[in-house]
Amino acid sequence: MSADQAGRTPKGKMMGVKVYMLDDQVQTFNVPQKCQGVILYNEVSHRLQLLEADYFDLEYLDEKGICCWLDHEKPLLKQVSAKDPRFRFAVKFYTPDPGLLEEEYTRYLFALQVKRDLASGDIPCSENTAALLASYIVQAELGDFLEEEYVDHTYLSNFKFFKNQSEDLELKIMEYHQGHIGQSPAEADFNLLDTARKVELYGIRMHEAKDHEGVPLTLAVAHMGVLVFQNQTKINTFSWAKIRKLSFKRKKFLIKLHPEGYGYYKDTVEFYFDTRNECKNFWKKCIEHHAFFRCHIVKKLPRNRTRVVSRGSSFRYSGRTQKQLVEYVRENYVKRPAFERSTSARSIASRSYGANKSNTSTLNSNYGHNSTSSGSHILEQSPKETRDTPSVASTRLVEKAEVHDDSSQSASAGSLSEKSPRSQRTKAAVDNTYDSPPSTNKQMVDRKMSAPVFSQLHHPEIEEHELSRSSEVGNIPEILEEDEERTRHPRFRSPAPDYQNISEVAEAMREEAGVRERPTFTTGVQPERSEPIISSPKENGHVSPLPSYSDALEIEQQRSQVQSVTTVTTTTTTSSQRYIQDDDEPEPLPPPPPEPLQEVNSVSPSVARATKKYPADRAYYIAKELLMTERTYKKDLEVLTVWFKDTWFRNAASKEDVWPETLMHLMFSHLDPLYEQHCQFLREVEQRLAFWEGKSNAHLNGEYRRIGDVMLNNMEVLQLYINYIEKHEEILNEIQNAQRTNRKFETIYKEFEGQKVCYLPLNTFLLKPAQRLLHYQLILTRLLSHYNNDHNDYRDCYEALQKVKEITSRFEDQVRHLENLQKLVELQRDLVGIDNLVQPIREFIREGCLQKLSRKGYQQRMFFLFSDMLVYTSRTATPTLQFKVHGQLPLRGMIVEENGSKMDVANSFAIYGGNRCLMVAASTQEEKDKWIEDLVEAILKAKEQGDEKIKFQSLKSNASSEGLDSSDLQDDQTAALSGGEKQIQHRANTTMHVCWHRNTSVSIHDHYVAIENQLSGYLLRKFKNSNGWQKLWVVFTNFCLFFYKTFQDDFPLASLPLLGYSVTTPAESDNIHKDYVFKLQFKNHVYFFRAESEYTFERWMETMRSATQRQIQEPVSEL
Fold first, then answer.
1. pLDDT of residue 555
2. In which domain, by residue range, is 261 found?
3. Does the N terminus or the C terminus of the chain have fewer Cβ atoms within 10 A?
């Protein structure tokens, strides 16, 4: 509905309206008696927090017993009686593809509708199909089949699936149920919808009518058009493409057809209903279905209520079309917080590694809505609940939504923090302390489990609830707290603790989210001290947490680092770890770095003396960039040398011969020495920066204010890089061969990629060493451009740069080849329906989203341009986040032609290849120019290649039409699911999926630029409408920002893909009165980030520009 419609609520007497929900609950809504239907519809949508609300509506029985949909623009009392108004919440538009439903909660409601239709007999089907549908319902509600508990079919007797439910049917249901072990409720819902959509009468509602000869028929409307049935058999279909006009006259329903080309012997078809109301009711349903499924946009025309003579019905569809809804969801989508299912009887058998385990509860909830502008939700318990629930075990844990396009890294409740393999092998040597110890006064809720199920009932005259929440950065609490005692006395952080019970999980989750009211829980770890978050009064219905203190964070080092660097005290303060205060309650700070942040508000004289500013030392911040990125590089290496190796050790201990020894020796014999040398280099850099910060006065020029000698001494490691780069392709090939020949290894490999610590595809981490040399070259180049020739650090930097350049120049082509190979391997995994994509001479050029003209109009397709062919795909309707190949065209003989004025679609062009012609349209003129330029250049290069080099046998099906049968791909998708790819959440951050959602494209040149612009460090982050700044460790790589609490965390809390974002400096209207702040914006998603110095600000701006592909408003000076 429009904001104007939703915003006008009549005053006056209220009435209670009962709404029967899909889970058979009855909820009452108090609305004004004189309100329009849209008011009630919006109340129901808001209470359910429906993002894809346009698929649903409210239906009622009129005084004649006709089932009608609520008219949103008509007064409520003109549709139902004021004595006992009743409605039923139901699915209105049955989508033919459940994959188009973005939210798991929407699919859950669709599944409840299918369950209702099955029980009422509205989906007539065979017994086998009915039993299969019922088995998915059982799997979603009860969980896995337990042989010791379900000894016979009687455990199904409490379910009423069908009108005539027999023991034979229950036995079939039990048999199917046994085959669903391992499916989560979300997967069972998806499979239920995928099976139901194939039933011929899925979503069909029959309306009795007669033809012009008086023959009894039944009419129905669906997504494809108007259907005609006779005795439950479909005898005709009038598709929307055939229909020119729909109208009714009294009892007569008229379908006017296009005069030519459709083979029907009449241009107008007439049907007769028993009453005028029945005829008009069916006509209105046809109008709405045509508008929703067929139209791109529906003009909102006000109804003329002052006319004297009626010229027909003024009814028009007033909601979003399916195209508008898809765009709206992509703009406003967030990974939905946990919702509660309508059963508590779910049980789960033991599953394989990585299977989802979830507990369910009822759909009812009384929690209020506390959404902040960032989309974060805080679940606050009432005082009564706090007193009555002394343990987390008694609280309800709800099922985690497993929707992926979202972008934040998911974490199941049972494995909130993964135990580091390093801590398992050296447990006795490391103090078992925590970065944020569990507190008896803190309760932590992960954002994905903390949002309320329903918002409180409200009226549109109050500020309308905005569903446009942040889809990427959702897992980070608004304010990060540091233990006061730990801040004064720094401790060594061990790897993330392994929570052993639900109490510890829930407590840790609540602590990270920063819940203000914290019940007391008993844990095995006694806290030191903690400070609560001080919340400001509610603004616009939102709770705005404020920072409660401003302390300096002290250096946190691994025990191994402290043992080797005995001269560095733990009280030395690094500027990278200092909490940058927001002028709320300033406290005296330790001695500052060369260029502390400037504050706008006035402070006390003592604080002013403590924050004395010194001239900026650009070399210090360049060296500091080296330190920040080295820490990230160390963590990336540990993914392979610690976590992946530990998986190998555990497998070897199980005596299962699934890991190829040759591969493991080849990989770790080159990576382990690199990791050890790097750890030593990192300790030296940390020591040098600590000394540098201690001698940062402008009048001093100590010997420690340099970094070139440390880098020059590290150049002996270059031989290790040479050895690794030379073996890199061999390692990749061995991994591919092992995956093809060893199914067990492939499963374990994919399961490891599904772990939170592996936040990128595993092959990407193998490229990090080669990319690191490029960053060394960048750092040394910046230092030399800053120094004078007579600077005491100039010669060392120059010599180090020459040695690094020698290696990067020598292996430049080989590294480019490896990056292309890695990209092909990634695409081979994510594309379904194509074989042998990885070819020695094949080069990746561009990937992106285009609109392709088909029989249904322009449809979104994902295109991949290679050096020898063009492939187009669409996203599969499975949880694997893969793309199904529809066709491919060879570049040899291809012609690209820009369309003239005859085409009414903007930015369109034609691609001719072989005997095919593709009409496509880009989102912008810029995108169109990029595609045409790359296509023309690739076609010219393809002509120069010999015929023997052209490979065109990689498509599994020779057919390249849009109508590829999904059954052809069933085996591939099943294999992917059995391999655990359904658990991989980082795929949503890959360029392929970001391009799909953001409707853009990325070229191989963009990948090269992004590789050269990787960055990490501490930033302060602020949402558009929040008050406080939150300090985060931020890593930029692969076109994406990853957010951590500290650099020592093993995996990111959340992520933000940057493709499509614009990078600017804050405008005057943003009211950001701070230095060194840049603004990221994509449509209505706005984030502010604050750097600590001018150099750091420039570097982040430069880096962000390389990833967002968007111009900034104010140019940044060249570095």
1. 28
2. 207-301+314-325
3. C
